[in-house]
Specification:
With 368 residues, the protein is of the alpha/beta class. Helices cover 26% and strands 26% of the residues. The longest helix is centred in the middle third of the chain and has 13 residues. It is globular. The chain binds zinc ion (2 copies). Its cofactor is Zn(2+).
C-alpha cells in the first residue's frame, strides 16, 4: 500500500535540504517496506546535496537507518513483519563473483542500485507524482522506506534503534577498516587521521583489537577530546606541529597501521609517511574523484609498506552488522556515546548545519 511519509529531500545541488511529505509505495517482488525508527546524518548525505556524490536530484537522503519491517513483497522469505533491520547502502546480490568470494561491498550488481532500487525504478514519489531518487538504494531519512532485500540486514531486537542505525555506515566503516581491511593485531601501534564519526569508530575498533598505541590526529581540539573519550592513547593537533607524520613517527617510532578518514591526498601521504617498516596505511575517507596521492615508490618494496583502501569497512553486512552489534551488547564498543544529539525530522536542516560545524560525533534523526 502507499504511505505518506515526511522525508528529507535534496531538490537541487547546492541548496539546503528540505523536509517534504512524499509517497512511499508498497513493496514489489523481493522488496520490503520499513517503518524507520532512526537515521544517522552522515557527511555523505551532505556530499549528495553538493554533487560531490553525483546522485541526481530530486533525491531522498539517508543511508544509515534502522527500523521495523511492516510489509513484505512477493517472494520474500528472509524477512517478516516485525523484524528489525538496518539499511545497507551497498546492494549485495549474493550471487556474483565478488559476493561469492566474500567481498559483497564490491558486488558486481551494486552499481545498478546507486540511486534507484536494483531494477532501476523507485517507490518514492513527490507531491506532483514525480519520481524521487533514493540515496544508495535506501532513501531512509524518511518515515517509511521500501527497499530491496539485498539492501537490508536483520539485526537483534534488543539493540536500541538509534544505536543499530549507525552500524549501517559510520560504525561499520571505521570498525570494519580496523577488523576486516587492516586486520589489526593486539599490541599494534596505530594512528587515525581525521576524527569524525568514522575516525572515532576506527579508534574504538583499534581499542577492541587490542592496539597498544592509538594516536588521533586532527585540527580540532574538541574532536581530539572526543578521540580520547573513545580510547585514543595520544592526540596530535595538526595546527600545533610542523609535520603531522613526523610527529606521529617521533611518538611511536612508526606505526603498524594508519587510517586516513578524511579523503584528501595530502592526508593520505601523511598516513603513509608515518608508517614504520612493514606498516599498512588504509584509506577510508572518500575523496573528490580528481584527488591524487603521491608516495615514494621505493618504500613499497624496501620497507614492505602497504597502501590500501577500505569501502564500508570491507563489510560482509549480513555477518558484520550483527557481529558489531554483538560487541556493543558485550560492552566492547561505544554506541550510546556516539549519538551526541537526536533530532525530530522537522529539524533535519539544523542537523546538517550542526554536522558541518563539527558539533556532533553523530547526529541522529529519530522518528515517532
Ligand atoms: Zn555514511
Ligand atoms: Zn553480488
Amino acid at each position: 500500500m502507499d504511505r505518506k511519509a515526511k522525508a528529507v529531500v535534496c531538490r537541487e545541488w547546492g541548496q539546503p535540504v528540505q523536509v517534504e511529505t512524499i509517497t512511499v509505495e508498497g513493496p514489489k517482488r523481493d522488496e520490503i517496506t520499513v517503518k524507520i525508527a532512526a537515521c544517522g546524518v552522515c557527511h555523505s548525505d551532505h556530499s549528495a546535496t553538493t554533487g560531490k556524490i553525483p546522485y541526481p536530484a530530486p533525491l531522498v537522503l539517508g543511508h544509515e537507518a534502522a527500523g521495523v519491517v511492516i510489509e513484505v513483497g512477493e517472494g520474500v522469505t528472509a524477512f517478516k513483519e516485525g523484524d528489525h533491520v538496518v539499511s545497507s547502502f551497498i546492494s549485495m546480490c549474493g550471487k556474483c563473483r565478488q559476493c561469492v568470494r566474500g567481498r559483497p561491498v564490491l558486488c558486481e550488481n551494486a552499481r545498478k542500485a546507486m540511486f534507484t532500487l536494483p531494477d532501476g525504478t523507485v517507490r518514492t514519489k513527490g507531491a506532483d507524482g514525480e519520481d524521487l531518487n533514493v540515496f544508495g538504494a535506501c532513501g531512509v531519512m524518511a518515515e517509511y522506506a521500501t527497499m530491496h532485500v539485498d539492501n537490508c540486514v536483520k539485526v537483534d531486537e534488543s539493540v536500541p534503534m538509534q544505536n543499530a542505525a549507525l552500524v549501517g555506515c559510520a560504525v561499520m566503516t571505521g570498525v570494519g577498516a580496523v577488523f576486516n581491511t587492516a586486520k589489526v593485531e593486539p599490541g599494534s601501534r596505530t594512528a587515525v587521521f581525521g576524527i569524525g564519526g568514522v575516525g572515532l569508530n576506527a579508534i574504538q575498533g583499534c581499542v577492541a583489537a587490542g592496539a597498544e598505541m592509538i594516536v588521533a590526529v586532527d585540527n580540532n581540539e574538541k574532536k581530539l577530546q572526543m578521540a580520547r573519550e573513545f580510547g585514543a592513547t595520544h592526540t596530535i593537533n595538526i595546527n600545533e606541529v610542523e609535520d603531522g607524520a613526523r610527529a606521529v613517527k617521533k611518538l611511536t617510532g612508526g606505526v603498524d597501521y594508519a587510517f586516513e578518514c578524511v579523503g584528501a591526498g595530502p592526508v593520505v601521504e601523511q598516513a603513509y609517511k608515518c608508517l614504520g617498516r612493514g606498516g599498512t596505511a588504509v584509506v577510508v575517507g572518500v575523496s573528490d574523484p580528481k584527488d591524487k596521492t603521491s608516495i615514494t615508490t621505493l618504500t613499497l618494496p624496501a620497507d614492505e609498506k602497504t597502501l590500501k583502501g577500505s569501502w564500508l569497512g570491507s563489510a560482509r553486512p549480513q555477518y558484520d552488522f550483527p557481529r558489531i552489534l554483538g560487541l556493543y551488547r558485550a560492552g566492547k564498543l561505544k554506541l550510546d556515546e556516539l549519538v551526541t544529539r537526536t533530532y525530530h525530522i522537522d529539524d533535519a536542516p539544523q542537523a546538517f548545519d550542526d554536522m558541518l560545524a563539527g558539533k556532533n560525533a553523530r547526529g541522529v534523526i529519530v522518528f515517532d
